[in-house]
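dude i think i finally got it to work??
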Amino acid sequence: MENRPYAKRFWGKADRENPDRIHLLEHHLADVAACLEALLQQPIIRQRLAHIAGREDLDGTTAARLCVFAALHDIGKVNTGFQTQIWRNDDFPEGRRRPGRAGHTLDLTPVLNDKDCATSEWFFDALGWWWDAIKSWDDCDGETVCDLLVATLSHHGQPLQLEGGRAKNPQIWRMFEGLDPRDQVARIGQLVHDWFPAAFAKGGLSLPSAPAFQHQFLGLCNLADWIGSDESWFRFLDKPKDDYIATARARARNAIGTIGLDVTAQRNTISSTGVPILKELFPHIATANAIQEATHQAPLEEQLVIIESETGSGKTEAALLRFARMYEAGLVDGLYFALPTRAAAVQIHGRVNDFIARLFSADTAPETVLAVPGYLQAGDSRGRHLHDYEVWWVDDVRDGRRWAAERPKRFLMAQIAVGTIDQVMLGSLQVKNAHMRSAGLARNLLVVDEVHASDTYMSEVLAAVLDAHLGAGGYALLMSATLGARARHRLLSGDPEHAPVLDEAMAAPYPAVSTSLGMTLAGENNHPKDVAITAEPHMQDFSAVAARALEAVRAGAKVLVVRNTVGYAVQTQQALEAVPGANATDLLLTVNGIPTLHHGRFAGPDRVLLDEEVESRLGRERPSGGLVVVGTQTLEQSLDIDADLLITDLCPSDVLLQRIGRLHRHRRHDRPDSYHMPQCIVLTPRGGDLDPLLSSGTEANGLGPQGGVYRNLHTLEATRRLIGEHPRWEIPAMNRELVERATHREVLEAITAELGDAWKEHGISTAGGYIADVQTARSHLIRRDRSFFTDNQDVCFPGNSERVRTRLGDDRIEIAFDPKPFSPFGSARIGRMGMSSRWLSSPDCIPESVGPTMNEGGGFEFAINTRRFRYDRLGLQRE
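look at this
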C-alpha cells in the first residue's frame, strides 16, 4: 500500500492495465479548465458563445467563471467508491471492505438534489467560496449557476438526469483508509480560487441565463474534457505540484494549436498575402461564371446563403471562393463541406483538399479531413486503427495534427473537413456527444450540397441544425439544383407555412442566389442544354431495358441506367449480362475485369474501387467507345460523370433533374452522331399510369406507399405529366417550372381533386405521413430552449439515444468480420460492412465478429443468427 500512489492520493485518470500509473484529480481538473480557457481565447469560438448570450464578446470575468465550472467537471470523483475501484483485493486492510463501487456523475446527483442530507451540507461548505460567490454571479436566485453546473457535469456527452437516478449512498462520501473526500473538496475549492482569481472579483456581468448558452457551453466543456484527457498532451503526474496550473496552461495551448483550433498564425499569414486570384485557386476556371459572380456579390455578413443552379454549373467553386473570403475577413475559422452520401463525400474530398493546398501557404495549410467513418484520411495520408484506440498513419506523423480525423465524434473539430450531412445532423439529435459536435461546427462555414425537400424527416433535422448553427452566430451556405419555393422559404425565414403561391414561385429567378435580403438573378451559366425526354412503360421489363441500353452502347454511347432500388438494379445488370456478347466486348462496367454495378450495398473498400472505375470510364477524361453503367441513386450524387443517354426509373422531378445533371456534363466533340443532344428515357410501370401503385401487393420499385423510397404518388404523377407535356426539357431555363409544377402544394391538390377517391385517400395518408415524420424528427431533436437544472426532464436524452437516426428508416448497423475475407474484386480484405437491421432476425443480438466462408467464384458467405448472406460482385444479398 505504501508504494501505491493511487491508495494515498485522489486520482482523476488511471492506467487500467497498470493502476500504479495515475494522474492526480487536481491535475486533471486543471488540464480541462486550462483547455476551456484556451478555447475561449480563440476569437471565433468566444464570439459564438457570446452571440448566444446576446453579447458582442465575453468579458474576462465571465470567461474565468466558465473555467471555474470546467474545473469542477469531475468533482464527483472525490467519492471513495470511485477512488477504490482500481484497488487490488490485497490493498484493503484485513476486515475492511470496499465502500461500494460508484461513478462520479450519477452518484453526485443525490448530493445535489437533497440539500438536507449530511453529505450535501459538508460538500458545499467544503467548497467554501462557492456560496459566497454565487450571489454576485447570478441574478436568477442561483438557478443559472445550477444550470451551468449540471451542464458541466454532463460532460460525458449527454445531459445528466437529476431525478430517478442513483439512491443516496452516504458511505462513499466518508473517509476511507486515509482518503478524506471532505478535505479533497476543500483543497480543490482553494485551488480553483487560485487558478482563476478574476472569477471571484466583485461586480461583473451576471452569468448568461439563456438555455441555448448552457447547451453551447456543454459542447465546449465536453470538447475540453476530450482534449484534456488525452495523454498525448497531458502526461500523468502522480505527485502534487503547486504551480501545476502553469504546466496545464502550456500543455493546453500546445494541444489547441496542434489540433488546429488556434488559427492565429495561419490567419496572420493569409492576411499579409491575401487570397490568391481565381486562376490560382482553380486552374480550370479562366473567369467566374454567373453563379460564381452572384455568390461573390452576396454580402459576407449574410449568415445564410442559398445557391440554386443546375448540376455542373460551378456551385462547389462558388462555395469555396466564399469560404476563402470569409476566412480572410475573420468571420469563420474553417469549413465543413457536407454531402448527402459517403460516395459523394469521397469524391469531393480531393477537390477541396487541392483547393485548400492552393489557398494556404505550404507551411500553414491544414489537411482536409475525410469525415466518413471507416476511411481514416487526412489530406493525402491514410491511417489504420490499432489496438487501444491508437492510429497508425502511413507517413508516420504522430504529433496530434490528425486528432480530429481519428474518431468520428471528433470530425467536426477539424478545421477543414468534407463528410456526410449525417455528421452535422448528429449535432442536433439526442445522441451522445451531440453538443460537442455542434460546438465544434459553430466556428466553421457549413456548406451543404444537394439540398432538397423530398425527405421530410431530414428536412426537419436540417432546419434544426441551421437554427442552432445560425443562432450561435455561425454561417451556412446551401446548394441545390432543385430547391422548391416552400423549402427555400422555410430555410430562409424559419416559417414552414406562407410559402409563395404557384405563380409567384414559378416566376422566381433561376439560377439564383438567395439571402435574407432577397433573391438575385445570377444570369445564364456557360453550359445550357436541351434534353430529349420520353417515358416508356418498361419499369418491370429488364430485358427491354437491357436491349435499349445495349443498342445505344453499340452506337458508341455512354449509358447510365439508374434504378430506384438495389433489387431492380441487380436484375437489370443480370439481364445485360445475359445478352450474348455483352461481356466479351467490354460493354459493361468492370472492376479488375469483373462485371459489376454501382449501389450502396458494397463494403467501403469496394465502394472506393467502384467510384474510381466509374469516374475513370465516364469522367471528364473518359475514353471513347460505348459503355453501360447500372446503379441506384448513388450514381446521381456528386460523381463527376458524363453520359450520353440516361435510362432512369420514374422519380420526383427535383430528383430527376439531379440525375439528368449527369448527361452532357462536359463539353466534348466525340459524342456519337445520334447523341449530340442528351437523351433521357424515364421508365414507368406497365400501362404507363400509376393507379396500380395505390394498391398493396403491387411491385412498386420504390414508388408509392408500398415502395417506401418515393412515397408521394401525387409528385410522381405530376412529374409523369411534365414528361408527356414537354418532350424537350430546356435546362436551366425550365428548372424552376419543372420543380414547382411537380412539388408545389397547389399542383398536388389539383391532382388529388381530379383523380378520385383513391387518390384523395392517398393524399390524406401522405399528409399524415408528413406530419408523423415531422413529429418523429422533433421528438429526436435536442431541446436547446430548455435548461439543464430547471427543465432537466426536458433536456435528458432517451435511454435508447443511440437508436436515434439521422435519416428516417436508416437502420444500418456495422458487421465486423474475423478473419477478414477477400474482396470479390481482388486482394483487398473486408474488415467491416454496413447492413440493414431489418435483414436480421435478432438485430439487438449481433455478435462482435462474424466468420465468413469464401466462395470459389469470388466473394464470401456468412451467417448472423438464423440468417445467411452472400457478398460478391453484385454486392450484399440475402440468401
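Residues 44 and 443 are 6 Å apart (CA to CA).
im so relieved honestly
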